[in-house]
Amino acid sequence: MKKEILTLAFARAVFVEFLSTLIFVFIGLGSALKWPSALPSILQIALAFGLAIGTLVQAFGHISGAHINPAVTIAFFVGNQISLLRTLLYVLAQLVGAIAGAGILYGVTPANTRGNLAINAINTNVTPGQALVVEIILTFQLAACIFASTDNRRSGVGSPALSIGLSVTVGHLVGIYFTGCSMNPARSFGPAVVTRRFSPAHWVFWVGPILGACLASLLYFYILVPYCMNMSDRVAIIKGTYESEEEWEEQREERKKSMELTPP
């Protein structure tokens, strides 16, 4: 685990998860505010969330992977793609970023427009159980899209940012009617903290997305497109000490130079 945490790249990645989640929550929630002069449409909100995530994936994907979602981060860990330490710090950064984004939006929005700051809420005609199923399915399709579109083992993946943005948009076009559409615990947690409005069914916006994303991870990484790795490599990934063969080859010359004796 030392190898991962002591790198500047790791610190940058954690910061980027904070920053990108802040921006995502600010834009997404901001699009759903009910201004007296112009009430938002379902399409407007869906496009705002989708375009925001697509933009952020394009901007920061090469730095942190641009998870911007605790459910996605946990699912990557379940799929043995990232370390435990990265998982914990990413989730913490995302939650803090969501609170910051919601807090900034609250501060710049007129009091008569803030409302409940677009917190997720289950439709009065929908039960918590039904809402849970909806969140599981919507997050499953999002996570599956993320895993497939960012898989470096396939060729011709197209634009991951576009694919993921469309997946988020589709989820909102359906989910808004049921739950306001979460698919992301941070998106639900941030405004709930700022407005101090936690509904009894808030757990749905944690359990649903995490369960849906993890199911997609288990299906994709262990059944549909499994990685052929031995147990020691899998443990090394969890610990954050894994070094792939490609990295080993790239660093061979550096290691060779470091072992050469040079005259004084």
Which helices and strands occur, and which strands form pairs?
Layout lengths: L1 H4 L2 H24 L10 H23 L5 H9 L5 H25 L2 H4 L13 H22 L10 H20 L5 H11 L8 H21 L6 H9 L5 H6 L1 H8 L5
Helix pairs in contact: 2-3, 2-5, 2-9, 3-8, 4-5, 4-7, 4-10, 5-9, 7-8, 7-10
Say how many strands there are.
0
Number of helices: 13
Radius of gyration: 20 Å
**Low-confidence regions:** 245-252, 254-264
CATH fold assignment: Glycerol uptake facilitator protein
Number of domains: 1
**Largest sheet, described in full?**
none
CATH superfamily: Glycerol uptake facilitator protein
> In the CATH hierarchy, what is the class?
Mainly Alpha
Category from helices, strands and their pairing: mainly alpha
Taken as a percent bin, the fraction of beta residues is under 5%
Shape: globular
In N-to-C order, the SSE pattern is HHHHHHHHHHHHH
Oligomer class? single chain
End-to-end CA span: 36 Å
Mean pLDDT: 90
CATH architecture field: Up-down Bundle
Helix content percent band: over 70%
Question: Which terms summarize this structure?
Answer:
264 residues, mainly alpha, Glycerol uptake facilitator protein, 13 helices
Provide a descriptive summary of the structure in words.
There is one protein chain. This protein is mostly helical and 264 residues long. The chain has a single domain (2-244), classed as Glycerol uptake facilitator protein, CATH 1.20.1080.10. 70% of the residues lie in helices and 0% in strands. It contains 13 helices and no strands. Helix 4 (70-78) crosses helix 7. The radius of gyration is 20 Å and the shape is globular. The two termini are 36 Å apart. 42% of the residues are buried. The model is unreliable at 245-252 and 254-264 (pLDDT under 50). It catalyses: H2O(in) = H2O(out). Its main location: membrane. Keywords: Cell membrane, Cytoplasmic vesicle, Glycoprotein, Membrane, Repeat, Transmembrane, Transmembrane helix, Transport. It is a multi-pass membrane protein.
